[in-house]
Specification:
Blueprint: E1 6-9, E2 34-35, E3 43-51, E4 57-64, E5 73-80, E6 97-100, E7 107-115, E8 121-128, E9 137-144, E10 159-162, E11 167-175, E12 181-191, E13 194-204, E14 219-222, E15 227-235, E16 250-257, E17 265-272, E18 287-290, E19 297-305, E20 311-318, E21 325-331, E22 348-351, E23 357-364, E24 370-376, E25 379-385, E26 400-407, E27 414-418, E28 422-426, E29 428-429, E30 433-437, E31 452-455, E32 461-466, E33 469-473
Antiparallel strand pairs: 1-31, 2-30, 3-4, 3-29, 4-5, 5-6, 7-8, 8-9, 9-10, 11-12, 12-13, 13-14, 15-16, 16-17, 17-18, 19-20, 20-21, 21-22, 23-24, 24-25, 25-26, 27-28, 28-30, 32-33
Length: 474
Amino acid sequence: MSANRTIVNWEPLESRQLLSVAGTLDTSFNYDGKATVNFGQSIGFATDVAVQADGKTIVVGGTNQNKPDNYRKDFAVARFNRDGTLDPTFGPKHNGRVLTQLGDFAQANSKGVVVQPDGRIVVAGYASFDGFTVQHNEFVLVRYLPDGTLDRSFDGDGMTHIRVRDSSSASDLALQKDGKIIVVGRDYSLGMFGSDENFAVARLNPDGSLDRSFGNNGKRLVAFGDNEEASAVAIDYTGTAASNPNYGKIVIAGKRYNEDDNYREYFDVVRLNGNGAIDRSFGSGGERAHSFVNHKFSGAEGLLIQRDGRIVVVGVTGDAGPSDQFALARYTPDGNLDPTFGSAGNGMVETGFGGDDHAYDVIQSAAGGLIVGGNVDRHYALAGYNANGVLDANFGDHGRVQLNDVIGGLTPVKLASAPDRKLVMAGGRDFAAARFFDFPLQRVGDIFTNGGVIVTTGTFSARMFSSKLIDALL
């Protein structure tokens, strides 16, 4: 038998059996591909997801006590086994759940998560400790040991608070190869003549202390004259330090708006050098801001640096109504829009589902294209594209997938790649998560009477549910 040909024996099936396509729910995850987490009397909402090296899924977010005498909001973390059940080895109560109270009156919200190579889990967000949520926020980072208990070696008690300038709200984080942590968001200041918002960035050492070699003693504001708010961060580790002049540089995406321009909003992408200084070789003096044609509002939410160093940013564009659409843009490594991306030749792509559509995150697909996750009318949605930004007809229903029974709400919906060519989506109400096939199972030839099937894409495992349904992965 040739090396790329495998025969798998099953019980006899009908010829021409329909098999899973990319974008199909993986029913080996909690029986129907979807899972939620109950945090007791609290209302749970998820905001980010990561997949560990062992295939377990980490979902983070927050809980709202929602009681007349207690409006406290806490950080929340849940871990799923590969089969979608809550992991009983995680959390102090061995129930797969962790709640972290930041203070008696804290209004806290976690926004991002990374898993370190040693299995420790870092969660970033923000909190207000005096009952206010706009002008008194601080970055908050919490690190957990692999079993879900607080890591006391991280700044002495497992958590650290940072105020970049006035009121700082974290939205995302990234892990450097040396173990240092980059966290980004916005810093808000209200003065006599209006508000001022800027990209806020901080870098922490592996022990949770501020890295004084970065920016201004570990912190910095990035301002280009308007109001700016950072949503996502990634570090360029494509190639090697010898082959890639941008190796180790920090890319931040978000939105920019000007009150004097009728609050028109733009995609905004900035690149920093490793020491926190603005990389003036990127875009126009370190920044690339642009809007989508004929739309008043555009804002970036998710960010991916591709293997060739090109930068994909996703978010929303529209006019603040039911006509909002998924928005994608790709930039060359020097910060210019990539004309090879999309069919319009301008580096920008808009995808509508026919509702109020909002993209939040993007990952590289197993097939070399892109998968974008978000909400359509506040429910889960995915869009699949080929490498050039054109909708992939082999993904979902002509490039689109909607889950009308899973509510993302107004919180971010994030994606993560999982083992065995799968992807995990999490976000929204009830701490929801769903797992999908990232790559189609393609069969050539018929299913024979002896129960065998020939495939041409290497070894795969399969599980039989019935004579009418196969859940298989390449």
